[in-house]
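Why this split exists: single-chain examples teach little about how molecules sit against one another. For that reason, every record in the complexes split bundles all components of an assembly together and asks for one structure covering all of them. Below is a record exactly as it appears in the raw files.
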Amino acid sequence: MRAWKMVLLINLALVVGIGWGYVFWGLRAGRLERELAEARAAAQSGIERQWTVDGVVRAIFPELGVLVLTHGEIPGFMPAMTMGFRVASPKIQEAVSVGDAVRFTLQGVPPNVAVTTIEKIK
Amino acid sequence: MEICESLERDLDERGRGRAGLRRIERTRRSEKRVGRRRDGPDPMDGLVERESGHGGAVDVRREGCGRARDRIVAKRVMDRVHRGLDAGNRDERRQSDHDEPARAPPRQRSGREQSGERDRPGRVDPIRGESRRGTGRVREGGTLWLGRKPRGLELREIAPADVGVSRADSQQRSGQGEHRHDPQHDSHSSGETPRTQRRLPIRYTGRVYAFGLAARWLHLASSVLLVGAAAMIVIAGRSDRATVQRWEHRVLTSARWLALVALASAIVVVATQTALFEGRPSAALEARAIAHVLTATQAGHVWLVRGGFLVLLTAFLSLRMSVERGADWRAARGETVLLGVAALVPLAAAGHAAAVEPDTLRAIALDAVHVLGAGVWVGGLLPLALLLRAASTEEGADARPYAVLTVRRFSRAALGIVLVLAATGTWLAITHVGNVAGLVGTSYGRLLLTKLGLLVLALSFAALNRTVLLSRLGGDGPTVGRPAMRRLAGFVAVEAGLALVILVVVAMMSVTPPARHEPPLWPFTIRLSFAALEGRTAEATRALIGSQIGVIGLVALVTGLAVRAWRLPLAAVALAALGAGAGLALPPLSIDAYPTTYLRPSVPYQAGAITAGAALYQARCAGCHGPRGAGDGPDGRALPRTPADLRAPHTAQHTAGDLFWWISHGIPGSGMPGFGSQLTEEQRWELINFLRALSAGYGARGMGPTIERDRRWLVAPDFAFAVGPTPPRALKDYRGRNVLVVLYALPGSRPRMSQLAGREGTLAVLGVEVIAVPIDADPNAIRRLGPDPRVLFPVVTEGAETIVAAYRLFAVAPHVEFLVDRQGYVRAITRSRGEEMDVDALVAQVQQLNDEKTAAEAAPEEHVH
């Protein structure tokens, strides 16, 4: 076989090999990405979830049934922030006052969650 | 880079036991690989971290290697500097940390965090707080201290805008994961697991070092010679002269051996690398460990690819092919070059260039060009010498014209290559070294200087060859040019030898952390700075005149190079003028310098450090320098020199490193004592942070409620705070938003607080976050504010004391509002008694801030400088 043909063959093999490797890798990356997206969706989808979070009572709106809390991170739902939450029963609002450090339970199908229990900490 | 990879690896290992997690880990890796930044919320993050119970390594991964190494190495060198000074001291301090419960963390942490912290002795690696410029906001979190003691509360927070990464998750990382990955900590810790301890050696040490270095050099030299040999044959071209064909055959045979040597040495390099990653020499002989390094790290992938090409090249060179015809010859030799280059160039992706941030790809590309150029130039020299030698002998006479032609071609090519090498080399040097201090003050910089010195030597040989010997090669007679050719062969061989020595330096550089990540030790007693001229007109004039004379000298020099006839007198004039100019201009520019002059503070500019520094100041310095730093302390009167007024804005002439030196060693003859034996390194930096805040605060007296357009100078010291039991956050998390830091006191401030509470919505829309800090640091501040009005912005219940102490250096009033801009500078200070004020005026100021164009690099330095 002529040398240039051999070289051509080698290079062709190289290009095909690298190209195949790249495509394979790319496809796999794509598949993994999809899997990840699914896993994320599964984590967020309409299953009822429950969290126990620490926070501070910042404001109470008895007429709306809303409690404004500065809270820590709610994993998989929201980062730490100040946020108004619906309360499951008016008793919860009555149990606390502004400035109380509390541990509360949040329950529901995101984003429809409500404070179901609350207790003062410290 | 490589260190990073090792850390990453460890995480992978940890995840291995849990099959369920592995998939997720892998998925995340692949996600990273496909280059998608995690911008959006990632609920898996929190879950995975929680389940596995060790975060951290992910962080290191994101952080980029330069930083990881930075942390690791920087302090090590600092320790080297101060070992003599305060080796005993540090232990003392550690002891005292345990003894003083008063300095305990300001708030209780959850049980797990505590257990993670408990075993750690007091010293927190302050380098952790380093600026992470260019790595994006997620990574911008630093170590922040609440209160006096760093170990009390250490957090790595995330910008509010980046809601994706969970806070608790990040906190866990900081609380547990991160410091585990910090070898410095491991070295201090007694209670750490063996797993972390064996990750300690991060540098080549002892035998492994020598072995690894030799292997690296051998590998580098053989790879480079391989490319050079292949390229040289192509540059020389095909010939049917017997001598030339013999030479070609010889070069090709040696190329095959070189490929084998490169392959073998590559295996040794990877093995030592593995020993390094694993932190134990025996790992170098474990096939499993090596396989893991090869498959799990980027450097490993690079070595795999290169190894593959080397095998292919060896096989190709072993093939017997007929190259009688031109096309065949070109194809075969071209393929050799191609495979050689393919084997050499990926080296760039496994070296320091791969750890450059942010322009990683550009750095790798430039490094690749640099390596390739070096390969063709350095590697081509030896085959060229062989050819000249062969052609200069009696029986090789038939090859002489060919050799002369080849030399000319190579000479032309080499000129271009050297220019390319200089350009890429300069860029890489700037990237890796950065400044003069790094060049002369770090081992990497000094290696680079050595390399440059050798390079100049090699280049002067090259210039000699090119200008003198090359021109003597011509002539037709049987003996004409032959001695010249022999001499040229010798000189080229010497040049090649020098190049191989340069490769030794290169190999050493490749295992030395780049200067940018090491604290430089300034070796001279003076430094040059324009700051020296400030306010000294006579000296400025002198420097100006001197510089002009110097310019005349330069012009004379250039003219001398261009005009052949006047060369000697012009050179004399140039030399005289340059000397005179330097003698005139340089003395006024010089400032006293110390080894620590260019040291970057290891403690970031944060409220906690400032407050700690203030306490130290009152205890140690106030006696002479005065309680307010005016230099009017009662003990200072008897001193030979009046103590310095520390508020004065003369600090431009002094770097933080200068102050560090003076505090450590005192100022001879002035009465200023050295505190090196009394204060730890960290305490001295804290003191310097306080001095900076003091001086800045003195300058801030004139700052009022209206902003000065585009004038940012007062850096807002970072601080950590918490609202109730929620995870702590930092001022720096708000980078990119304007922040109104309100120091308030009830009941006086109630009207203003109500007003701000009512307008919070407006302010939020304008990009203003309000952080209210009770001056009395009442932990029940929120309760005291009460239900009406509804204050919903963060009211600091933990950390207020520190914030107030630091910010009171800038303004003292019953109610103070600091308007901090998007880059973290205080732009306006409103002092009042807390009465209602015009919110629209504030809105107008904010509007102005929002209209300003923010420069990309405008984020303030987190360290005193």
